[in-house]
Structures are given as C-alpha cells and as structure tokens.
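<goal> How does this chain fold?
<sample>
Here is the protein in question

***
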Amino acid sequence: MNKNILCAFCLAISSFLLIAQNDKGYNIGFKFDNITDKTLYIVGYYGNDYYLLDSAKVKKNKITFKSNENHLPTGFYQLANKKGDTYLEFIVEKSRYFTISTALKNPYFNAIINNSEENQIFFEYMKHQITNDGTLDPFVDNLLSMSGNTLLGVYLKTTRYKFEAPSFDEIKGEEAKSLRQYLYFKDHFFDNIDFSDPRILRMPIDYGVGYFFTEIVIKNVDSLRKETENFIHFTSQNQEVKNYFLRELYFIFHNGDPTFDIMLVYLYDNYCPGGECDWLEELLQRRFTRDYKRKSMLIPGKKVPFLEAVDIHGKKHSTENIPNKYIILWFWDPDCEDCLEQTPVLNDFYIVYKEMYDVEVFAVSITEDVERWDHFVQENHLEWVNVSYGMGDPNYSFVDYFDLLTTPAIYLIDKDHIIIERMFSLDDLHSFFEE
C-alpha cells in the first residue's frame, strides 16, 4: 500500500471517529447490476451464531433496508439471499444511513460507497485480503495502527496476531521448558480479546473458548474450576458479554463428556440464583434444571442409594452387604462391543488387585438377554458380583438414576457409598487407589 493511500486512510478514520450518529433507525441501500433475487436479507453475527435482522424486496436492482425505530447494533453484517449465499459483508458503526452501489462480480472492487467512511476502509481491507489470498502483511499492520478503537480496529487486533508462547531457551530441560510454554500459552490464550467490549460479539471471529476448555485445560476438577472462574472473571466487565459466554460454557460442558458434569453443576450453583439462569432461553433453562437435578446427585462426594439386584440363580445381592473398602459399579451389556472388550480388562485388574486394594465389583447387566449374559460371565470366569435386569427388577431404576445413556459405565464408591470417581478410563483405575 503506498503512502498516499495510507494518508487517505488516516484522514478517513480520523473523520469518522469524530462523527456522532443517531443509533435509532437506519436506512441502508444497495444497488447491483442485473440482480435476479427478489428479496435480500441483512444477517448479523452474534458470537458463533447468525441472526436475521431485516429483509427487503429488490426493486429495479435496488434494495433498501430502513426503519425509523429499530436499533441496528454496531457490528459486522452480511447481505444474503434466501439460499444463504452472501453478496458481500459490510459494517455498521458511526453511520446507519448509507448506500453501496456495486457489481455482482467482485463487489468489493467495484463499489461506490456514500456516507460510510468506515465501509470505504473496510472494503479496501477486503480487497487486500482477496488479492493476497488472506495473507497478513504490513498493510494490515498499518491499518491496525491507524484504526484505534474502531470496530475494524478491534476486529483486526483480535484476529491479526496468532498467539505463540516464547521459546524459554533459558530454561534447562525439555520437560521443564515444555511445562513453562504450556502454562504461558494457557495463561495468555485470550490476550487479544477484550471481553469488556460487547462489539466482539458481533464480529466473525473465533474466540477459541471451546478449544481452550476441551483441548488446553487439564481435565480435572481443580483445573477446570479454576480456569472457568478466571474466564468468567474476564467476561464480567460487561453483562451482555458475560451472559453470552456463560451460555457458551453451558454448551461446552453439556457435550456428553462426563468429565464436565461437575462443571455444569458448578455453573448452575453459582450462576443460576434461585434456579433462574437468565442467560439461557426458557427451553434451555428447563433442560438445564432437569439435567442439574440428575447430575448433581452423581458427582464425586455425593452418596448413592445402595443397589440391589438378582443373580442367575434368583438370589438378591445388595451393595449394602459388601464389606470391602471400595466398590466398583460396572454397568454393561453383552450386546455392547465396548463392553465385550473392556469387561475382561476390568476382570484382569480385579483378579490381581482385589485383595491389595480391598475392592469388589458389582456388575450389572442392563440387558434382558439372560442367556447371552450368563454365557459371557461363565466364559470369562467373572467371579465378582454378577446381577442382571433380565433376572428381575432392581430396587430402583439404575438406568435412570445413573443416567446410563451408553455402556459400559463405571463408578467407584467407598464403603459408605460416597462417589469417589465416575465414568473414567480403566487405564486410570490404579491412580485412585495409589493416591
């Protein structure tokens, strides 16, 4: 980009920063040559979602979106057709009364923009990105330095720089160096995002929140709770931003991974006062409340009722009568491939460590196929407590109480029926006994 254009950008940015426009109402017009769509739509960004803001008929290649009362929030928008095809993107900040005339082909390169200097600058940026295949270079750095706290400036700051941890060459030992890099990366992951600015919600950006909590944060209760508390603190300077990201955390922790169940309980206990989660839609609030009631009974530290079910000989067995220090609850199904693979693995552990760890296994087959269940038990010499739904109803519905959406499912409880851990890999079994 040459110096003259840079200077022109400086003047344009300076001028539109000083212009104060009325937020109430808008009148935005577009003109395309030879347009065939009958109706076009303004589509807005809201976090990771889109929403339809307005629609207008095409009349003689012109489309006008207008309102005297409705508010048009500052943000990025798309002009799209009914199929969802995007004609172009534009921004709304200082001006809500402007026109853009252009061609269907290469609209950013053929545009004539009136009364929207921010879009003149934005279109120059889009032209550069298209011409350079999205390559980031000094042009964008210069534009960022000139844009300040404008909408485009905040967008560029958020997306321009890809965060990388320092090399920490001064630290000796690869393990220590890797740990320091990890901690630095984790602690600075959101440095380029200003969570106090609600405009970030109306930009096409990837906040990386899902990646952070599923891939970066160590999946144990202490780490998850600490990082969740820190993240909510980041977002708490603006209530709209906080509410949006509380909703995002709900979806992240409600992904079916039982590791996150305790965090769903945490969110509900701390951010749904009186059972009202005002940052969720009514339908989601009801679902969250229902799930909370179930999941809050199944997190470590909670006590479960004793389990009673029937073995192949019609004899009742109860966890209440198991004298061991620990009990492994193993819910499985002989028709489940994972169960057929993992049950013998658990049996190998049981044979070797039953006495050492003072542990018993209470294995419940939730299938009605008694013959297949008993055949597998006999074939694999399973000497622990074997009971089955097929031999009679248990003393309560284990499937409902333990939320058994899939099998196998595992719980480790102590002699008082307090949950120590749940839904973990068999590879981690030793760690619970060796702490």
In short: The chain has 14 helices and 15 strands. The chain has three domains: 3-125, 174-295, 308-434. The CA atoms of residues 312 and 391 lie 7 Å apart. The chain has a mean pLDDT of 90.
